[in-house]
Amino acid sequence: MNYDKVYGCNVMKSVKSQETIGSCSISDLASQCYYLWKNSRLENLCLTPEVCDLLMQLRSKYKLLLLTNGEAQTQREKVEAVNCEEFFDAVVIAGDHAEQKPFPSIFQLCFNKLEVEAWDCVMVGDSLDTDVQGGFNAGVRATVWIHRAEGSVLDGPVKPDYTIPTVLDLPRILAQLQNCTCE
């Protein structure tokens, strides 16, 4: 989903509607644009059937927790729009707490919610700076970076234990970790 394109289309709709309605203050126009963008963005958020199947499969074997950074109300709206709570044992919106990823305290809260130790956990995410670094800071067993861009090279200080192009490849990594007896 190209959110810039969705946002751009909604700005144009809003501007065109102002031409037919009459004059409007810039702040009213900006509010209307934001409202259209936000609603379009939420309407277009979804999990594919394959991802839903994967989450159900994983939840039958593992405890799953969704940890998301950001302003609490915005993140809550996204979680509700995707209707994904059923796939997780717990959902933690870091904006409701004093610290967000990559701080260890938010991860410790998650470990406590699931009644697990850090070493029993795998952090899966799409951000090196918050997800992967946070996993390292919290002492999880492994970090998995979902990296969709082809051909780019990791050149920063944060190096995930595993990199996959799609979350659908996660079972392969979990199988490797299950077979590994190293500590």
Automatic annotation (TrEMBL):
The keyword Coiled coil does not apply. InterPro entries: HAD-like_hydrolase, HAD-like_sf, HAD-SF_hydro_IA, HAD_sf. SUPFAM superfamilies: HAD-like. Keywords: Hydrolase, Magnesium. Its cofactor is Mg(2+). The keyword Metal-binding does not apply. It comes from the Eukaryota. It holds the Pfam family Hydrolase. This is N-acylneuraminate-9-phosphatase. It comes from Xenoophorus captivus. The lineage of its organism: Eukaryota, Metazoa, Chordata, Craniata, Vertebrata.
